[in-house]
Amino acid sequence: MKATKKVSPVNLSRKLEDNLKNIKDSLGESSDIIIREMKISSNANVDAAVIYIDGLVDRDLVSRDILQPLMFNLQFIKDKVGQKNSSLLGCIKSSVLTVGQVETTENIDSIISSVMTGQTAMLAEGSIQALVIDTKGWEKRAIESPENEISIRGPKDSFTETLRINTALLRRKIRDPNLSLVSMQIGQRSKTDVVIAYIKGITPDNLIEEIKQRLKRIDTDAILDIGYIEQYIEENPLSLVPTVGTSERPDVVTARMLEGRAAILVDGSPMALTVPFLFVEGFQNPDDYYARPFFASFVRIIRLLGFLLSIYLPGIYVALKSFHPELFPTPLLITVAAAREGHPFPVVLEALLMLILFEILREAGLRLPRSLGQAVSIVGALVIGQAAVSAGLVGAPMVIVVAATAIASFMVVPFADTGALFRLIMTIVAGFLGLFGMIIISLEVLSHLAALRSLGVPYLSPVTPLNTSDLIKDTWLRAPLWALGSRPAFLDPLDKKRQSPDQKPHPPQNNPNERKS
Amino acid sequence: MKNRQQGKISLVILLSIISVFIVGCWDSRELSTLSLIAGLGFDLDPATKRATLTYQSIVPSQVKPSPSMGGGEGKQTGSGGLQSIQLDHDTGLSPYEVLNRYTQHGSRIPFYQHTQVIVIGKAAAEHGLYPFLDTVIRNPAGRPNILLAISDNKASDILAVEDGMENIQAVGMANIIKLSARFSKYPAVTCLDFTSRFIGKTTAPVAPIMGVFEETGPEGKRQKKIRINGTAVFKGDKMIGKLNEQESSGLLWVINQIEKGFVIIPEASLEIIGSKTKIIPELTGGKIKITVEIEEEANLIQYNNARNITPDLIHQLEKAQAREIESQVKAVIKKSMALNADIFDFGGAVHRKYKKEWKKMEPRWDDIYPTIEVSVKVKTRLDEIGDINKAIMTE
Predict the structure, then answer these.
(1) Residue A440: closest CA among chain B residues belongs to which residue?
(2) What is the DSSP string of A106-156?
(3) A433 part of contact set with chain B, CB < 8 Å
(4) From B24, which residue of chain A is nearest by alpha-carbon distance?
(5) Which of A145, A334, A505, B208 has its CA 20 to 30 A from that of A515?
(6) Residue A339: its chain B contacts at CB < 8 A?
């Protein structure tokens, strides 16, 4: 905050030359800064200049709606200025420029910062004011279908890097005027626009206050992505689990806002943050709500199972094999023992080897150019997996365990990273301490999770603290939409009622088409 | 705040360190260092009193032919002989001493948690099982639910037979015992069952007897096979007699362990669907009278005469069936009285009903038991007669 404080606001002088010199000094010699000088008024005696940054403005707009009217309506301008005592710029603002948003300023610094955001400034000789004309328009990515959060039935749009488009996507979903988009700028140098989006009357006020507080606390030079914000506002930054949610889907963000959460959007990031973020949210998928409830509930349970498998399966396998062989059913033990025969490494080492190999493959596949990614996965999966088994380095059941784990780990995307770490920890613990050690570590993790909060909401709610109604309706099971009468109580929304009750559809009582008999 | 944070961190570190010390790597047992004992045989030389243990251990590398290695070398049982299992013998004075000798020749640590069956040689069973059973039950490594079988000769002979569809012969033996119990032929007895009867002072333990018989296989080769051929009756820890097939079935009827199975009468075969037995003791004038009430339901699965099934006929079949069951039960009761071994736990039934009187009876049970008057009441019901009710051929 100290650095952004102006030394002394420099006001415009009456001489255009001085003003331009001042501006040039501040903006430097950059080649993309365009200063177009011209003469306006019928006898071409008034000097004027238009300043903008090439690439940030819509060139068509500048030439068609600023330069052209200014240069073609010379007589008109003179008449107007002559008629009344109105100022030249006032007249231009009200009658000449055909651009939507035009503001007046007297301050050079504000001119410069406006120009930096893609606005066009217009100065004229003899005027201590300048016009700041909104001409923002740069090349941007179109709205594309989401890449990371795939939904089968849901909408296929996703956020882009442009903040205005993102807020528009939210507006299009909720036409309620109560949808509030509070703006602020963060970053001394990047001056990134950040928007807190929430629905007034649903999201609790103290939550918004808290978010504002946390955002204001950020004092850094640049916010390049929403991840920067995430790490600055987290409640427990040293925890392995995320306490801030992200989504690239407007429908997900909207749904979360409607439940009483707030969203944070950052210019330049195709993701939105949502807070508070709770453990169960990781298992909720937009398709759960778009599809009928039965399969949705089933899939949620499968997701939980997959998540637990992805964390525990290698550990359990290692623990059973090296500490508790008596827990295997006898035929399975014989098979497993047969597969184990003649392998040089202890099971823990085998498991760690395969798990780390898998993480290497994953990371390499992710970072490589797309065309090479396929080659890596083939080499990794077929060559290394198969070869390791036939070379006798790794047992075949271990490959199955790691493969099943790897697939399961991608079922719950928000916890995929966390899961990978927990999986490694569990495997190491299993190798040294057996099932007993796994239970101890699990209890430690569980007590940590139970103590964790996201923006004041207990992380494991509604499981603990227990809220039976929320637990039954929308946690591991998903009740039919008409039964979801109230918003989740643990988020403490201002408007608790989501919809009117008794909306369960039923066949007509007196069906006129029914044949009388 | 800072202090609390530090406290928490040190608590977590403390917990982690503690968890390293309270459980630990020294418990770790790599599967490849274990020898899985599938079957255990116990023999006793009556003359020298030396115990011999026979271990049938699994050779994991030979068990499961991996499909990728091709079918040729995959088949283990059959002509190749005992490849997937290995037999070892040890001899010593006490069972536990023998168990300890294993490490002198075995390259791996014996692992008893997956033992399927314990076979006891006839000589050992007749001499008394107490030291051996104590070893099995007291040792936490062994499981009390291991099946028990008595060999009609030496235990080592049975464990050496290369028979069965299973790769592991002991698994096959355990399956034979379980199946025969499921089809209500011979009782399946675990070490725990055996011991708990042993603990009840008046109740006589039983266990199935297995024997080896020879058969001419294809290509004229002599093949050894295993089968159950009776039920051993114990008095205390010593085997004193043997029930034959019919008596064994009778035993199961009385002790309410009929699950499935068949009742064969001269004109028909019947499949048992359900059965319930009640043992009702009655004490009148110092004399004990016991009523065994059996209620049984069966389906007709085969009828020998080409006659239509009529309600009258069903009635006749029910009566014939009841007679057959009664004869089995009476046979086993007679045998049990002759051996003076309370294999039905009649003593327990009396104890439950006449608690006061039992105290006096218990020490004299051996005298009382042969004098008990037992009456058998069998009620049977024929439920279904199958898919046809008319004979497929008329006489």
Answers:
(1) B19
(2) -BHHHHHHHHHTT-EEEEETT-S-EEEE--B----PPP---SSS--SSS--
(3) yes
(4) A433
(5) A505
(6) 64
- Look at residues A137, A140, A75, A141 and name the one whose alpha carbon lies nearest to residue A101: A137
Q: Give the torsion sign (CA, A249, A254, A260, A263).
A: positive
A390–B68 CB contact, under 8 Å: yes
Which has the closest alpha carbon to B393: B282, B309, B278, B308?
Answer: B308
The alpha carbon dihedral of A443, A444, A445, A448 has a sign of: positive
Domain ranges of chain A: 16-133, 163-277, 291-457
Q: Which of A325, A334, A336 has its CB closest to that of B29?
A: A325
DSSP A11: B
Q: What 3 state SS string does A230-293 have?
A: HHHHCCCCCCCCCCCEEECCHHHHHHHHHHCCEEEEECCCCCEEEECCCHHHHHCCHHHHHCCH
Report the C-alpha gap between B255 and B248 in whole angstroms. Answer: 11
Which distant-in-sequence residues (6+ apart) come within 8 Å of B265 by Cβ? B317, B320, B321, B323, B324
Q: What is the pLDDT of residue A514?
A: 63
Q: Going residue by residue through chain B (395 aa), what tens digit of pLDDT does each one get?
A: 567 888 888 888 887 777 666 655 566 777 888 888 999 999 998 888 888 999 998 888 777 554 444 333 333 444 344 467 888 888 888 888 888 888 788 888 888 888 999 999 999 999 988 888 888 888 877 788 899 999 988 998 898 887 767 778 888 899 999 999 999 999 999 999 998 888 878 899 999 999 998 888 777 778 888 899 999 999 988 999 999 999 999 999 999 999 888 999 988 999 999 999 999 999 888 889 999 999 999 999 988 888 888 889 999 999 999 999 999 999 999 999 999 999 999 999 999 999 988 988 888 999 999 999 999 999 999 988 888 877 887 76
Structure tokens at A17: 């030359």
pLDDT per position as a tens digit, A424-458 = 999 999 988 889 889 989 999 999 999 999 998 99
Q: Where are the domains of chain B?
A: 30-61+75-243, 245-395
Cβ distance B105 to B87 under 8 Å? Answer: no
Cβ-defined contact of B114 to A325 (cutoff 8 Å)? yes
The structure tokens 């500048």 sit at A62
Largest CA distance in chain B: 101
pLDDT digit string, tens, across residues A108-166: 888 888 888 889 998 888 888 888 998 888 888 888 898 888 888 889 999 999 999 99
Architecture of the domain whose range is B245-395: 2-Layer Sandwich (3.30)
* A325 reaches B (C-beta below 8 A): yes
Contacts of B25 in chain A (CB under 8 A): 432-433
Cross-chain CB nearest to B58 (options A334, A340, A342) = A334
pTM of the model: 0.80
Report whether B167 contacts B63 (CB < 8 A).
yes
Q: Taking CB atoms and an 8 Å limit, are B64 and A338 in contact across chains?
A: yes
| pLDDT at res. A276 | 92
From chain A, the residues in CB contact with B66 under 8 A are 396
CB contact under 8 A, A334 and B29: no
- Nearest-by-CA chain A residue for B58: A334
List CB contacts of B101: < 8 A, sequence separation 6 or more: B90, B91, B92
Quick check: bond before A276 cis, omega within 30?
Answer: yes
Q: d(Cα B131, Cα B147) in Å, to the nearest integer? A: 18
Residue in chain A closest to B140 (alpha carbons) equals: A326
Q: What residues of chain B have any CB closer than 8 angstroms to a CB in chain A?
A: 12, 15, 19-20, 22-25, 27-32, 34, 36, 58, 60-61, 63-64, 66, 68, 111, 113-114, 116, 143, 167-168, 171
- Cα radius of gyration rounded to whole Å, chain B: 27
Interface test with B, best of A320, A322, A334, A443 (most B CBs within 10 A): A334
